[in-house]
């Protein structure tokens, strides 16, 4: 798999993408294997990756220039920025870097945080994000397709990056690779990927809402709102926390954000935009799009297509991974197949 030059990236078939009226999409930067995104208040963009060949890099996009600022990871999928420091999640640990907006390599003064996580590669790549409480939220996916995950897996934790605390918040989560906090309530919402091999249309992927610490979101017993797992029947769906939205099966819902900017139309305010990375084991592929989850009175109401067209027939030329607001209120979208970061912007249609 060869990395695209920026000139080649700009030749991607963006005209095949379908967007709502007034929206446009362009290539913002080339970033091979682009995964999770983090944007600083000044507009510097950091991009994690899951590895491309021998490359396992973290990128910085600054002043229209893309640089590799750190490498040598196993799977640096997650990136988060706070108080002038960058945090990068690998399989079993999180590393802190100082002054990442200006420095690279050893000058970043890397420090591995004391909190440790399992070393399993299966669902081991991590999305991370700081919460309103100042803590870093770190998930650990199930180390299987379907199994009893034990006490260290299928959970979301939060850690104090300036201390040693590691607190379990929720369990029964097969693999979340995207979450955000509601701009008003500050509560955690997250995507979750459903298990494989229950058919082309079962079970659904999920959007979940954590309302109290300790909630169990179903895995491995229940998928979606009421799909009982045939192998794990010890707990019933009625006794577990259901998702607030059932997405289509196998779409691989990953990064999600509440849109809190002001450059999109008003009816996008505080709505969820999420990336569907796309199915890998469905007879007819689906996903490969951005989805808009509409909320009404603080509750999820419906999911609908926002941007689609990366999937053409049975072939996909792009796979969106994460979404993040840019400093001007536009939306950045990473794509690990095309190896780019896009920018989605809005201008009112001419009447």
What is the SS-derived class?
mainly beta
What's the order of the H and E elements? HEEEEEEEEEEEEEEEEEEEEEEEEEEEEE
**Total beta strands:** 29
Instruction: Tell me the quaternary state.
Output: single chain
Write a compact overview of the structure shown.
With 351 residues, this protein is mostly beta strands. Helices cover 1% and strands 40% of the residues. The chain is built from one helix and 29 strands.
Summarize this structure as a short list of keywords or feature phrases:
351 residues, mainly beta, five-stranded mixed sheet, 1% helix
Task: Please explain how this structure is put together.
The chain has 351 residues and is mainly beta. The longest helix has 4 residues, at 6-9. The protein is globular, with a radius of gyration of 19 Å. Strand 25 (311-312) and strand 26 form a beta hairpin. Helices cover 1% and strands 40% of the residues. The strands form 8 sheets. It has a 5-stranded mixed β-sheet, with no helix packed on it. The protein has a 4-stranded antiparallel β-sheet with strand order 1-29-28-27, with no helix packed on it. The protein has a 4-stranded antiparallel β-sheet with strand order 2-3-4-5, with no helix packed on it. The model has no long low-confidence stretch (mean pLDDT 95).
């Amino acid at each position: 798999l060869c990395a695209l030059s920026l000139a080649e990236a700009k030749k991607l078939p963006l005209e095949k993408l379908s967007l709502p009226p007034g929206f446009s999409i362009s290539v913002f930067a080339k970033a091979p294997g682009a995964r999770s995104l983090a944007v600083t208040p000044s507009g510097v963009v950091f991009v994690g990756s899951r590895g491309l060949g021998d490359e396992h890099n973290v990128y910085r996009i600054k002043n229209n220039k893309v640089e590799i600022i750190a490498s040598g990871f196993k799977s640096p999928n997650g990136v988060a920025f706070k108080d002038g420091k960058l945090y990068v999640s690998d399989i079993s640990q999180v590393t802190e870097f100082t002054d990442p907006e200006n420095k690279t390599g050893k000058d970043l003064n890397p420090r591995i945080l004391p909190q440790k996580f399992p070393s399993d590669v299966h669902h081991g790549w991590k999305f991370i994000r700081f919460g309103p409480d100042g803590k870093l939220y770190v998930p650990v996916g199930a180390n299987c397709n379907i199994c009893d995950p034990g006490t260290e897996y299928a959970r979301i934790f939060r850690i104090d990056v300036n201390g040693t605390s590691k607190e379990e918040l929720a369990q029964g989560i097969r693999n979340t690779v995207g979450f955000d906090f509601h701009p008003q309530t500050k509560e955690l919402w997250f995507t979750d990927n459903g298990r494989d091999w229950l058919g082309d249309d079962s079970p659904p992927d999920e959007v979940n809402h954590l309302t109290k610490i300790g909630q169990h979101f179903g895995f491995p017993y229940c998928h979606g709102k009421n799909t009982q797992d045939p192998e794990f029947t010890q707990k019933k769906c009625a006794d577990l926390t259901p998702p607030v939205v059932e997405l289509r099966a196998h779409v691989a819902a990953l990064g999600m954000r509440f849109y809190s900017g002001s450059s999109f139309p008003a009816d996008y305010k505080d709505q969820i935009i999420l990336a569907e990375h796309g199915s890998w084991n469905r007879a007819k592929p689906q996903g490969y799009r951005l989805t808009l989850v509409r909320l009404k009175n603080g509750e999820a109401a419906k999911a609908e297509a926002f941007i689609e067209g990366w999937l053409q027939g049975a072939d996909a030329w792009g796979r969106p991974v994460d979404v993040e607001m840019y400093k001007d209120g536009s939306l950045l979208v990473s794509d690990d197949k095309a190896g780019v970061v896009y920018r989605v912007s809005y201008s009112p249609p001419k009447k």
